[in-house]
Write a structure and sequence with these properties.
Elements (H helix, E strand, L loop, with lengths): L30 E4 L5 E3 L4 E9 L3 E7 L4 E8 L10 E2 L4 E4 L10 E8 L8 E3 L2 E3 L16 H50 L7 H19 L1
GO molecular function, one term: metalloendopeptidase activity
Organism: marine sediment metagenome
Protein name: M23ase beta-sheet core domain-containing protein
């Protein structure tokens, strides 16, 4: 499911993690979107109105139930919502206007995103449901949403990348080891040729292999 932003403006005055004693549990668990009074509020996804009314805290509000256990709540509306209990709403449909009713210090939309089950690690359990940070879901395509499945996919991709990076480093070391070995072999052959040219005694091919093997053995001992 894809959620659009409820307002055209995406400015946030208080985020999901804002803490204050006026909130149950001490955490905001929603986002506040400041806007001019009367600014249209849109349903973030298609669904059905499951609650609408007025309360001292929320002011005018409307709750919409969506597929996959999601539920959104729009609070402090300027006037009663444009939709009624049980009404079907479409994504982007105007359901009310920004106001400052209830416990509010200025015109803004207090927007909540809830789900019956925990969809991501930042979710907070409250009154039988899970509050989720709307910023992680609004305006994103479904495959971009930060769900537990998405987190696992990102983790697996990170592990794959780390493993590939490790394998690349090992292969580089192996290639470097082969280069060093070939360089040592070339140096030995050069020294043997110089000895022969200087008349310091001929070195047989067997002797050359023996010397090279001894050099390799010394290198292995040094590595350990």
């Amino acid at each position: 499911m894809r959620f659009i932003w409820p307002l055209d403006s995406h400015v946030i005055s208080r985020d999901f993690y804002y803490r204050g004693s006026i909130y149950i549990g001490g955490q905001h668990m929603a986002i506040d979107l400041p806007a001019t009074s009367g600014t249209p509020i849109k349903a973030v996804a298609a669904g059905k109105v499951v609650a609408a009314g007025f309360s001292d805290i929320n002011g005018n509000y409307v709750d919409i139930g969506h597929d996959a256990g999601w539920r959104t709540k729009y609070r402090h509306l300027m006037e009663p919502a444009n939709v009624y209990m049980g009404a079907a709403v479409s994504q982007g449909q105007v359901i009310g206007k920004v106001g400052s009713t209830g416990w509010s210090t200025g015109p803004h939309l207090h927007f909540d995103l809830w789900n019956a089950s925990r969809q991501s690690s930042e979710a907070v359990y409250k009154a039988g449901v899970w509050a989720h940070d709307p910023v992680l879901y609004l305006g994103l395509e479904e495959e971009e949403m930060v769900t537990e499945e998405r987190i696992r996919e990102l983790l697996e991709a990170t592990i794959r990348h780390s493993n590939q990076q490790f394998a690349d480093e090992v292969n580089h070391l192996i290639r470097q080891s082969h280069i060093n070995r070939d360089r040592r072999q070339a140096e030995l052959e050069y020294k043997l040729r110089k000895h022969e040219e200087a008349g310091e005694g001929a070195a047989s091919e067997a002797r050359m292999r023996t010397i090279a093997r001894e050099e390799d053995n010394r290198l292995e001992v040094t590595k350990r």
